[in-house]
Amino acid sequence: MKKTLLIAAVAASMLQAAPSQDIQTANKVAKELLKTLGGNLKKHLKTKGPIDALEFCSTHAYTLTQQVSDKFGKQIDVKRISLQPRNPANTPNKEEAEILRSMEKKLQSGAKPKPVVISKKDETIVYKPLVIQKKACLICHGDIEKNPKLAQKIKDIYPSDKATGYKMGDLRGAIVVTIKKEK
Ligand code: HEC
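That is the input. Now the predicted structure with heme C docked in place:
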């Protein structure tokens, strides 16, 4: 019952048109975040391998995300969420989890999940799905037991890690961009 209500609320709020400028801003912010995180990840994987890349992600991914957010000013916030988070700080709230589940359903039905735009009175929230499209993602989010040293390191840093067992084409999570209306 509760779930149906929430979906209805989400659907209703989606009907409210979000300014196309907000969607453009969200695309720009998400692109910048992907470029920043992806570029660093690639560099570390290539030069020193998965363990070094893991250490880099664990010490920098969250702060780099914060930095990208700050770069776009006070009205903008960007973060990553997942139903199976590695960093507990990336755990979705109820509304966010509902949206991730709707994206997962879409993917399971064979369709490509689309960005979800929620337009509220004082903010627009854009959810951009993150589907695993690169094999490199699976080094740390797939069958990690293939690399026992890496698996141990992940357990040491993230004792409650849930971000493993993924396959190509799975939904890893979403980038959430919030654009606050100017007051
Ligand atoms: C070298 C290991 C490594 C690789 C390769 C890797 N990740 Fe991660 N990933 C991490 C770590 C560590 C975190 C937690 C970062 C933090 O503490 O904020 C993480 C977190 C995430 C999150 C945030 C949600 C969560 O679980 O906390 C997403 C989304 C994500 N990764 C997607 C990807 C995608 C997509 C790829 C492939 C392009 C990828 N990762 C490749 C190590 C990796």
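Residues 41, 50, 53-54, 57-58, 61-62, 80, 82, 85-87, 90, 130, 132, 134, 136-137, 139-141, 163, 172-173 surround heme C (CB under 6 Å).
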